[in-house]
Write a structure and sequence with these properties.
The complex is a heterodimer of chains A (140) and B (98).
Chain A: E1 2-6, H1 7-20, E2 26-32, E3 40-44, E4 54-55, H2 58-71, E5 73-82, H3 91-96, E6 103-108, E7 119-125, E8 128-137
Parallel strand pairs in A: 1-8, 5-6
Antiparallel strand pairs in A: 2-3, 2-5, 6-7, 7-8
Chain B: E1 8-13, E2 27-32, H1 35-45, H2 49-53, E3 54-55, E4 58-59, E5 63-67, E6 70-71, E7 87-92, E8 95-96
Parallel strand pairs in B: 1-7
Antiparallel strand pairs in B: 1-2, 3-4, 5-6, 5-7
The chains are: A alpha/beta (140), B alpha+beta (98).
Chain lengths: 140, 98
């Protein structure tokens, strides 16, 4: 599997992770159901406001899924930042991963690594993590 | 006119990750007058679903359940009452951390 994503979205996610540092940032990219096209970037509020945890607000979560239903869209990418650890899914990330069809993107804002190099994507299905290639394109 | 105490048909929206329990169905229905009854009824029809929603008799921390537009945690959780025509939405939290 490969995540195909625009450079504009990559830059926006990295920028959000810098702005929200020291908290973890989070969000989704939406696309038409079954298309696997990461079209619409939607930054979400980290209701946990924490450097070690993220969680979508419960009301925002419901609103998001209602919007998906109304527009026949789905979550193509779920992303969040790690502030001091590598961009690899943690135990918690794996335990709570609940979208088997989504690409789970992790970025890291830890200082000793150039953030540009820490943009990685995974599939997380039934507790099994598989890293995948990221293809950054000018347009989808 | 006698008061009716009969159970109500409640529509329940099932998230992708739990659809293997409902034979792929996105929307199912069950009869219940509160959330605890609803989960018990769902588990009877779809074995194993109850355990994905409850832990030690409480709602799992990272499962969100809404009655119409309201998070059940603000409505008494398992004691939240249900009436005919209510729509219940189950959504796993989108959460994680380092």
């Amino acid at each position: 599997m490969t995540l195909r994503i625009t450079s504009q979205h990559v830059e926006a996610i990295l920028e959000q992770s810098r702005v929200e540092y020291p908290d973890e940032c989070c969000g989704v990219i939406l696309g038409p159901e079954g298309s696997d096209r990461a079209e619409t970037l939607k930054p979400m509020i980290n209701a946990a406001h924490s450097p070690t945890f993220y969680e979508f607000d419960s009301k925002d979560l419901l609103a998001l899924y209602r919007e998906l239903d109304d527009k026949s869209q789905e979550i193509v990418v779920v992303y969040h930042s790690h502030t001091e650890t590598q961009a690899f899914p943690s135990r918690t990330d794996i335990a709570y991963a609940s979208e088997p069809n989504a690409h789970y993107v992790l970025v890291s804002t830890r200082k000793e690594i150039a953030p540009e190099n820490e943009f990685r994507s995974y599939r997380i299905i039934d507790g099994v993590v598989t890293e995948e290639d990221v293809e950054i394109v000018a347009a989808l | 006119m006698s008061a009716s105490t009969s159970a109500s048909a409640i529509e329940v929206r099932i998230p992708t990750i739990l659809r293997p329990f409902t034979n792929g169905e996105k929307i199912v229905s069950a009869d219940a007058t509160n959330l605890a009854e609803l989960i018990s009824a769902l588990d009877k029809s779809y074995t194993g679903l109850g355990e994905r929603l409850l832990e030690n008799g409480e709602l799992r921390r990272f499962i969100n359940i809404y009655i119409n537009d309201e998070d059940v945690r603000f409505m008494g959780s398992l004691t939240a009452t249900l009436k005919a025509g209510d729509s219940v939405t189950i959504l796993p939290a989108v959460a994680g951390g380092c």
